[in-house]
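Good morning C.,

I know you're traveling, so I'll keep this short. The sequence:
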Amino acid sequence: MRPETPSGKAHLEELLAAIAMFGLALETAESWGGLLAQRLSTGARLLAAGNGGSAAQAQHLTAELVGRYRNERRPLSAICLSAETSSLTAIINDYPADELFARQVEAHGRAGDVLVLMSTSGRSPNVLAAAERGRRYGLTVLAFTGPGPNPLAAAADEALCVSSQFTATVQELHLVGLHLVCASLDRELARLACSGADGLEGTAPRMLQQQAAHGHMADTSPGGHA
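The tokens, ready to paste straight into the viewer:
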């Protein structure tokens, strides 16, 4: 039987306890950000997937990459497989449920790409199938999961596991981890841009100049329309 989900003060206490333990994952998140910066700045792509709340967080991650987290930079290639509604419904209509993400990984993934999978249980069959398919085709598989050990953590190249028995707490810490990865990514991209290692140098100024030339700069002056 599942333990009763904490609420109110108990929820916050559970979250604080999990955060205290999550500090051990900081090095992993920093490493993942560096990996993504190196791969995505040289033409690789990130694929992400999860079910339910984890699907929303997978889409959050890809939005931070295609848009931006904090620093101005060029867009990075990232696809949330959970958000591909036509593909999802076509696959589930014609293939076993476990193929939901795996078939998309096979379609879009290339050796050297990165596959990020999110699962609070670490046991979702369609996510496990995606991990196996990703490894088979040469993708680096990174997993956000709940308490380890679990099957997804074992199937991935690396895993960031949250030590909490409550789904809500795991999801909340996954979001923290996701943002830590994005911050590390931004920092490494800035370093690469300064060295001219990936062609990002001067990207932000060029973008701003282009926006100004086309009248797309937001007016933030007094009386402006921003």
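Safe travels,
E.
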